[in-house]
Design brief:
Helix content is about 30%, strand content about 20%. By secondary structure, the protein is an alpha/beta fold. The longest helix is centred in the last third of the chain and has 16 residues. The protein binds adenosine monophosphate.
Length: about 150
Amino acid sequence: MLSLNNKDLLETPIKEFIISSEKVAHVQIGNSAEHALLVLTRTGYSSIPVLDVKYRLQGLLSIKMITEEILGLERIEYDRLHDIKVDDVMNKEVAFLKEKDTFQRALDLVINHAFLCVVDEEGTFIGIMTRRIILKQLKKYIYQTEK
Ligand code: AMP
């Protein structure tokens, strides 16, 4: 049976696996749901981070959160999109990683999340770590260890 050596992958700092903030699509507090829907649809991402003006992580936003808000009894009320702010509909209870966290913590958290935001000591958003990246590293590690 394969056993992961604690000193290896599990204790590796996540820093080297982060997709840096410049490459991550996001919206800002105060942006309209209309703008957010455009960003989500154009990028094709299921969910993106919501940041404040100081680039601190405030929540996550998905298309589902927006459409649920404008779902009327008989129709989807698209005309309301302009007046709804992302802060009204985003999820504020967000699991996140700190840049000094290890691969093991990321592995524990990605079981329930497709990606995790990473913040520095001041809570400033520095990027994301995706389940895809974690699985890729795990696969690489397992195949190397088997040889
Ligand atoms: P992936 O593993 O590439 O399929 O990404 C999983 C999820 O992570 C996506 O559906 C998005 O919610 C988020 N994500 C990945 N890359 C980005 C990015 N560059 N910008 C914003 N969100 C991203």
